[in-house]
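Field notebook, page 410. I keep forgetting to write these up properly, so this time I am using the form the group agreed on. The chain and the ligand, flavin-adenine dinucleotide, are recorded exactly as supplied. Prediction of the bound pose follows.
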Amino acid sequence: MSEASNSNRAQAHPLGQPGGVAARAQHLAWPFFELRHQELVAELDPWAARRVAHAHGGDTDATCRGLVRALGEDGWLRYAVAGLEHGGLTDTIDTRAVCLIRETLAYHDGLADFSFAMQGLGSGAISLFGTGDQRARYLPRVAAGQAIAAFALSEPEAGSDVAAMACAATLDGSHYVLDGSKTWISNGGIADFYVVFVRTGEAPGARGITALVVDADTPGLEIAERIDVIAPHPLARLRFAGCRVPVSQRLGEPGQGFKVAMATLDVFRTSVAAAALGFARRALDEALARATSRRMFGQTLADFQLTQAKLAEMATGVDAAALLTYRAAWMRDGGARITKEAAMAKMTATETAQRVIDAAVQMFGGQGVVSGETVERLYREIRALRIYEGATEVQQLIIARELLRAAGAA
Ligand SMILES: Cc1cc2nc3c(=O)[nH]c(=O)nc-3n(C[C@H](O)[C@H](O)[C@H](O)COP(=O)(O)OP(=O)(O)OC[C@H]3O[C@@H](n4cnc5c(N)ncnc54)[C@H](O)[C@@H]3O)c2cc1C
């Protein structure tokens, strides 16, 4: 990265800290990245500082709609979809670019990261498995920020145990008829379409699930409940009652929906780690600024060795998480299967970020728990990342399964 772009980004940094942006950008010199990735961050970081770093509160739905529009208008959502002819920047999703975008947006604003991520996750199955017609119908609008996407997999009785899903679809001529519910659906209530996974019964368990794109205005689909969470974003329970969806809206083959869901999550799970990394880096920068400015006992907080030990732990954790995250992204971009590496990255980055943010809150003292303080916001924002797209315990099982499989094969 050029000296000039580094200094531009340092000027745009909201903290104005020497070492803030520059320190965050150091990992771009790692061998995982190419010049285009360095240029991407050099452009996105000041954009995000200018366009999306804002006070939270107010109307979350309107904020998210505005963020999707802004991300689309300025071209960032082109990274969230695959296919040059359908609004994407490349024919496959550039995992490293998606991760860098999520890390950078999360550093500045959790809702901006959320809005970007959901456009990718919500349309990912269409990018990966859609027919030409399906891709042409949805992806250009997703990439332009004109259509909001959602991914509807979880159910009240089927979260970690996805294969236990009960929401069912039966064939009636040229339509599937959906009955049942989905819950914890991000963008529920503001989405223009939902990629929904339903039980179609070709075989028991995971082999009897099918993926369908359901437009939000389809009769028989309703928002049964909006759900408030500690870091608010649009979230809802959906109810399907006799909801008729044309067979032409199916993604992939009947009974292959589990594979569609897992392949989509495989692309985006690593990016959850990247978002956690963005939150953690922000907390570390906030902690450094606080520790070097807060005076007590005749010196600054940073002069105490107890503080220095904590800062060292935080910075080392951030780098370890970054290494695992970008190793997984780099491997995927090289065509490797990354089930284990993505799970390691997601588990480590989210758990580390929680610890780093908690340590930052502690350094802020009482001010750390005041509503609206950045570290207070981060403290709320990180929590759900250890649960969704596979809780930490689920990641542990995945890692162990892969290890044992490899050991058995050896
Ligand atoms: C903010 C938020 C946004 C979400 N967005 C979406 C979305 O857009 N689309 C969607 O489909 N879903 C979404 N989810 C759902 C999310 O994926 C589920 O919450 C998650 O999979 C866990 O399922 P559950 O809540 O039913 O918890 P459960 O499955 O009941 O698990 C509870 C806890 O049990 C533990 N656990 C799980 N498995 C094991 C095990 N084998 N051994 C030991 N312990 C275990 C874990 O600690 C886990 O947190 C979202 C959730 C949240 C909180």
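OBSERVATIONS:
- The CA atoms of residues 86 and 139 lie 6 Å apart.
- DSSP finds twelve helices and ten strands in the chain.
FOLLOW-UP: compare against the apo run.
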